[in-house]
Amino acid sequence: MTGRDPDQRHRAATPLELLFDLTFVVAFGQAADQLAHYVAEGHILTALGGFGFAMLAVVWAWINFSWFASAYDTDDWVFRVLTMVQMVGVLIVALGVPRLFVSIDEGTPFDNSIMLAGYVVMRIAIVAQWLRAAAQDPARRQTNLTYAGLIFVAQVAWVAAFFLRLGSPWVYVPLLVIAVVLDFGAPIIGERRGGTPWNAGHIAERYGLLLIIALGESIFGTVASVSAIVEEDDWSKEAVVLVVAGTGLAFGTWWTYFMLPSAEVLGVRRGRSTVWSYVHILIYAAIAATGAGLHVAAYVIEHHAAVGEVAAIWAVVIPVLVFMLAFFGLYSYMVRAIDAFHYGLLAGVLATLAASVILVSNGASMATALLVVMAAPIVVVVGYEVLGYRHEAAVLARLGEN
């Protein structure tokens, strides 16, 4: 376990990594389903609080596994067994998501007990991996021990904070701060101690694959919405339009994301990996929330919601907007340039999203409004294919020269 070659060409995701990712289908589904349910009931604060906490925990655990595997994937029996342990942890976290939402909604003490148990299982398994790497890779021993130590202490702080959450805030709050700082600061501190041999092309592919899994929620939301219409009125023009709109929105989001030259930039500017990685938490949450928004539309169509059509379209528009803002912000950060052309594209995105809300507010059908929402990523795609790729080529050429 001496580390993979960070410059290995054509490094691809392994079957084990793909199997590991399947557990996140369940985790994303649980979080998105609870978000949709509570938004449809009009309990917005519960929906946002529970969804944000759940997605942060789930995606953060995935990020840590993926960066470790990019650097130290031996794929022997020990690595595989510890990966299976982490998969079990992911499923435990997913099973604890509903209880978390209920505790927030009822105003009872914050109950993340099941989620915490699963999270600690995942993190202790990754601590074992880092200790193994420290023992077998002398050149990076200090870096790997730093990772293992910070993550382990963070888990102790998480557990202590949970059991003391009903006690004095003078004890609980400092423990919570320690847990957050150590858990989320471990990669920053660890990479400054020498760094790990992660592969830029491999890690960019891994993040792209998880994005595709998150997009599955948009597909599921589309199916739920269309099923609601079909059950009410059988197949109709509105149902067909909704299929096109939901699928087009997922496809456009996918196309937009993969315009980001992640592998190319990380290959020559490894120091930009931390911000790139952390912003993806917001990107994944926005995509999963888009699927939840489509599910809210299904609740409204079935007349099983306490909110109306305007609230339902907002449930789709807001996460699409968050994704777009995160995408353009991350793009500008990665290439270290703010392209005036992007302002035009972003203006087009804002115009289409605003138009969808206005249409519903004036009596247009949900399917028609979602068709307009679908135009948001299409604006970006067309702009890139017509002109943007030339800008990108010039920026990448400058990065290669410097």
Describe the structure.
This protein has 402 residues and is mainly alpha-helical. Helices cover 83% and strands 0% of the residues. The chain folds into two domains: 15-192, no CATH class; 200-401. It has 13 helices and no strands. The chain is globular, with a radius of gyration of 22 Å.
Mean pLDDT: 90
Helix content estimate: over 70%
The proportion of strand residues reads under 5%
Calculate Rg over CA atoms.
22 Å
Unreliable runs: none
Number of strands: 0
Q: In this structure, how is the largest beta sheet organized?
A: none
Shape: globular
What oligomeric assembly is this protein in?
Answer: single chain
Derived from helix and strand composition plus strand pairing, the structural class reads mainly alpha
When the domains are counted, the total is 2
Return the string of H and E elements. Answer: HHHHHHHHHHHHH
Count of separate DSSP helical elements: 13
Gap from first CA to last CA: 33 Å
Write the layout of secondary structure elements.
Blueprint: H1 15-40, H2 44-72, H3 77-106, H4 113-136, H5 141-163, H6 169-192, H7 200-233, H8 237-257, H9 262-268, H10 273-301, H11 309-335, H12 340-361, H13 366-401
Helix pairs in contact: 1-2, 1-3, 1-7, 1-10, 2-3, 2-4, 2-10, 3-4, 4-5, 5-6, 7-8, 7-9, 7-10, 8-13, 10-11, 11-12, 11-13, 12-13
Summarize the structure.
The protein is mainly α and 402 residues long.
Looking at this protein, list some descriptive labels.
402 residues; mainly alpha; 2 domains; 13 helices; 83% helix; 0% strand
